[in-house]
Structure formats: C-alpha cells, structure tokens
Specification:
The protein contains 11 helices and 5 strands. It is of the alpha+beta class and about 375 residues long. A 5-stranded mixed beta sheet has the order 1-2-3-5-4, covered by helices on one side. Strand 4 and strand 5 form a beta hairpin. The protein is rod-shaped, with a radius of gyration of 35 Å. The two termini are about 40 Å apart. About 25% of the residues are buried.
Amino acid sequence: MGTGRLRVPAGAGDWAIALAVAALQLGTGLAGQWPDSVADRLGAVLLASGGLALIALRRAPRIVLAVTALCAVGYQAAGFEVLAVSYLIAVYGAVRAGHRALTVAASVTLVAALQLTALAFRDGPPGEALAQARHVLELAWLIAAFAAGEALRQAERRAAEAERTKEETALRRADEERLRIARELHDSLTHQISVIKVQAEVAVHVARRRGEQVPEALLAIQQAGREASRELRATLEALRDDDTTPPPGLDALPELVKRFELTGREASLTVEGTPRDVPAAVGRTAYRIVQESLTNIVRHSAATTASVRVVHGPHSLTVRVDDDGAALAGAPPAPGLGLLGMRERVTALGGSLRAEPADEGGFTVQAELPANGAP
C-alpha cells in the first residue's frame, strides 16, 4: 500500500480556484436575487469572467492581471460593490512570477480607475462614491496579496538556489573523486610502465654489448614503453597540479597554442567580440576543450595546421578548434574518453558540444558555453 500523498494536478487546481472565485463573486454580488436588467446581467457576467480568468494565471499572469482589473471596473460601473477577489489573486500570481513593477503600476491605475468610475456612475455624495470604490478594492487586501506573492517568490528562489548549490556540490565531489582515482591510476601506471621500460632498455643494452641479436619483441616492448610513458605524461599532466595553483583559463590559451606549435605544426588563435571575465568553471572548461582538441590532433590526425577561435557573445562563450586533417565529412568520430570528457564538462555547465568532420575536410570541435556558467 503506497504511503505517498495524493497530488492534485496543477491544471485541476487552477480550475478549482477559478470556479470557486467566480462562484464567490457571483454569490456576493447577486445575494440571491436574479439580475433583471441589462446592467445587472452585464455585471454578473463580468463577476464570473473575472473569476474564470484565473484559469490562465499560471501561464499568462500579466494578461490575467489586466483582465481581472477590467472586470472589476466593469462590474463596479454596473453597480456591484463586490471585493475584487479575482484581482487580488491575480496580483499574488503576477508578483510570484516576478512582475512586481508591472503589478504596482496596474494596481495604482486600478485604484484610480475605480474611484473615477464610482464618481461617474454612482448618484449621491462623492464620499459615498469613494466608499464604494474602497469596497471593491481594499488597500489592505491589495498589500497583503502583494506581500504573499513576494514571500513565496523569495522562498521558491531560495529553494532553487539551494537545489542548484546541492547539485554543484555533488558534481564537485564527483570531480574530486574522479581526480583522486585518476591520480592514483597515473601513479600506478607510471611506475609499472617505467619498470617495464627500464628493464627492456637494460636487456637491449646488454644484448648489444654481447653482440647478440636483439629480439624484435624486446625492441617492440622498449618502443611501446617509451611511447606509453610519453603519452601518459602528456595526458595526465594536469593531475599533478597543486591544488593551490589557480586552474588554467582563457588567459592560458596563447601559451597552450605555442606549445602545440613545438610539435612542428602551425597554429593560430583568434579572439572575437569584447573579452570579459567569465566564471572560473567556464574558463577552465574552454581551456580543457582546446587542450584536448590539440592533443587529439597530435595523436590521431595527419593535420599540419590548426586554428583556435574564441568568440565572446552577449550571453555565451564559443570555443572552436579546426584542423586540416584527412577526416571525411559525414564519418562519425571515433568514440574515446577525450570526447566523452569534453561532452561531460560542457553538459555540466548547460552548454552544447559539436565534434565532427568538417564539410571542407578536417575536423571541427565547437563548444557553446553559457557566459554566466549556470545551466
């Protein structure tokens, strides 16, 4: 037997509130008497319409605010002194949705419009007319509705911030754990590969000094050990960074491109737009994407040139790396940990990554990162 609470769908709740408010306003306005004039019938329609408009409050709070205000003015002109409950709820919904300035402006306008309407359509002393306007919209109720909407908006904002902080903490802890495992793996593999490489080189040296023919398998082990050590050092170099050292960001890209040129290939770095400060996570991710892309060019591509382009947009940071390798258009990129790692980094920030052969040849890696660093 389930123990969960029975949850009412949001749409059903909106309908229930709208119907209840419409019935309340109609019941209060008619007070058991059937409308017998055109003005009474029009006022009854407006009383019901103001309540039913609340059905769309969640989807269109500004429109509902305007509709309920017009209905309040209309049924007051028809002679009904009924508190504008529908407008108060619309104020609550609009403020909760973040439309505070618009709600204040609409409320001030409505208070003035109700007073002018009372003076224009009600016979008798002006004091009685203004009293009727206050019956339709009490300032105390209006302030209470505004305060309730603002309080709930702040509570929801704090809850969302807490949830985002919780997710960021979980991601950071996962990154720290992966970093720890990677460092341990790096230490273990480096030691074992170094032992194999040294033993192979000693065996080759001894065999040559004795004038013996060195077995091909031994030479292959020696060469593989050298390549494995070099690649492991290049791939996991970042794992040796001291935690007190600031992580590399966009300002480290020129040095990264210069190091790439030491491999004998040409490279260029272009920065477009107005450079501005971005969150550390965004700058670090951009740096790692360029680093991984250039490393893949060295290892897996026959490219002779590479271009790195950084574009500062109004709300995003675009990083693109192109090469002139022999990748074929339409051919899917070979899956690997490098591309997977880049995609994970970009997705964690709420961005997007495209890595595929270019139409004109070569390979393209392009990442779109939010400039504020939030998903």
